[in-house]
């Protein structure tokens, strides 16, 4: 059982998209999982509700925001019965975010590679590290670049990569590029794979990118587990 939490105090970083893409790829690989939507915007829960209304099957469970009193018990129960639990956290530092982090095996911080978003991501890293000290255990965490340009690396991305490497913060080996398909899955309450046969620009490129991203996450989980052993 592995708990993966997506965190970033800034909105619009692709946090919910990254969580949903990972959930679909893990489910397609045959693992069991549940998604816990802790973000007050409830975008994942709304996505699932619209799928239910359209009578579309979803290969994983999506659950709404628990109360602070219930979140630990719910996480533990889900982790005992699923291979993976993916949590889309709210942006602000709060008690419920801290409580989820105490049960997290990997925290993922999505951000567009710009100096402003890097500063916001540093706040999420600070919260993760403070929580790790509080519970006296390491909470593995990584940045993942989102909405990158598939054709070339911008100067901002080069600068942020260099800064990240210098600071020693882990950066996921795969980025999520800017693709029209990643906005369509929310507009149409679809899975990425369900867009085949529709007029979506470079869909196969988006599917390949999502698969490479999910594989990078799983490899990182395996590496952190090996380090801890």
UniProtKB/TrEMBL annotation:
Pfam families, per database record: VirC1
The name this protein goes by in its record: ParA family protein
InterPro entries: DNA_Partitioning_ATPase, P-loop_NTPase, VirC1
Source organism superkingdom: Bacteria
PANTHER family: COBQ_COBB_MIND_PARA NUCLEOTIDE BINDING DOMAIN-CONTAINING PROTEIN, P-LOOP CONTAINING NUCLEOSIDE TRIPHOSPHATE HYDROLASE
Source organism of the structure: Acuticoccus sediminis
